[in-house]
């Protein structure tokens, strides 16, 4: 696959993922991580985390009045030890092992998001979800489904805005940890900048349509796509 075709595939995936996340609150990492892991594993998870910063800032600001700051605080507190554990996983794993972990964590996240019973966002559950998210997002870039499960029975604006705020704080923590560990490289910044235009396009589209979509069907489509992508990523090439 030529570099131009590869960029177009990644740009399309980024725009679609930004649209989906802006509309329903999750989906960006589930869509982009498997594709990025297959095509450019050296960019994972740093470039993915970089891309998610402006996206989650946009969503959090758009619906800032609906953020559950108390829950976000406990989630962020729980994320701190999880981030250190995720960094340890990233430092000891090979490229192939990381691909396998990304694929496996994606598949597990989809199955959990699809079948797990609902639970309320209380202090203990918030801290537990924060720790899990810290591990998986720092190591693989995928961290949305546990947060979506936590808030799945809350109003749509609260779910989207709170998850975005948690992501924003958590991604800053993860990127700082990766920088201290010497895991940030120029090529990751360049790819993130190159994919910024389709990300902004997808985000803008979600603003126009997020209140009109059948969120349930869209979420099911995202999870099905992510399941297939995660399974493909687990196949050794």
Account of the protein in words:
There is one protein chain. With 237 residues, this protein is mostly helical. The chain is built from 11 helices and no strands. The chain is globular, with a radius of gyration of 16 Å. It starts with a helix and ends with a helix.
Mean pLDDT, nearest integer? 83
Q: Would you tell me the structural class of the helices and strands?
A: mainly alpha
Low-confidence stretches: none
Oligomer: single chain
List the secondary-structure elements in sequence, H or E: HHHHHHHHHHH
User: Mind summarizing the main beta sheet?
Assistant: none
What Rg, in angstroms, do the CA atoms define? 16 Å
Taken from the alpha-carbon principal axes, the silhouette is globular
Strand residue percentage: under 5%
State the helicity in percent bands.
Answer: over 70%
Q: What is the CA–CA distance across the termini?
A: 15 Å
| Number of DSSP E strands | 0
Count of individual domains: 1
In DSSP terms (H or I, runs of 4 or more residues), the helix count works out at 11
Keywords: Cell membrane, Membrane, Transmembrane, Transmembrane helix, Transport
Subcellular location: Cell membrane
InterPro entries: TM_pro_TauE-like, TSUP
Protein name: Probable membrane transporter protein
Provide tags for this entry.
single chain; about 240 residues; mainly alpha; globular
Give a brief description.
80% of the residues lie in helices and 0% in strands.
């Amino acid at each position: 696959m030529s570099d131009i075709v590869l960029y177009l595939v990644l740009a399309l995936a980024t725009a679609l993922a930004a649209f989906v996340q802006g509309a329903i609150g999750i989906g960006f990492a589930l869509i982009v991580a498997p594709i990025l892991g297959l095509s450019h594993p050296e960019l994972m998870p740093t470039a993915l985390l970089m891309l998610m910063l402006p996206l989650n800032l946009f969503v959090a600001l758009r619906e800032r009045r609906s953020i559950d700051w108390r829950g976000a605080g406990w989630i962020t507190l729980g994320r701190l030890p999880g981030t250190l554990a995720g960094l340890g996983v990233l430092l000891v794993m090979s490229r192939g092992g990381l691909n396998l972990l990304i694929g496996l964590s994606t598949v597990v996240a989809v199955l959990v998001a699809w079948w797990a019973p609902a639970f309320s966002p209380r202090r203990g559950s918030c801290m537990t979800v924060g720790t899990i998210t810290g591990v998986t997002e720092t190591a693989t870039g995928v961290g949305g489904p546990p947060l979506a499960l936590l808030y799945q029975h809350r109003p749509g604006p609260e779910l989207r805005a709170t998850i975005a705020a948690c992501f924003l704080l958590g991604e800053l923590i993860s990127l700082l940890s990766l920088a201290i560990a010497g895991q940030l490289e120029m090529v990751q910044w360049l790819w993130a900048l190159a994919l910024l235009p389709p990300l902004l396009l997808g985000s803008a589209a979600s603003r126009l349509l997020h209140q009109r979509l059948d969120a349930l069907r869209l979420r099911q489509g995202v999870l099905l796509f992510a399941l297939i992508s995660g399974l493909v990523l687990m196949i050794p090439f």
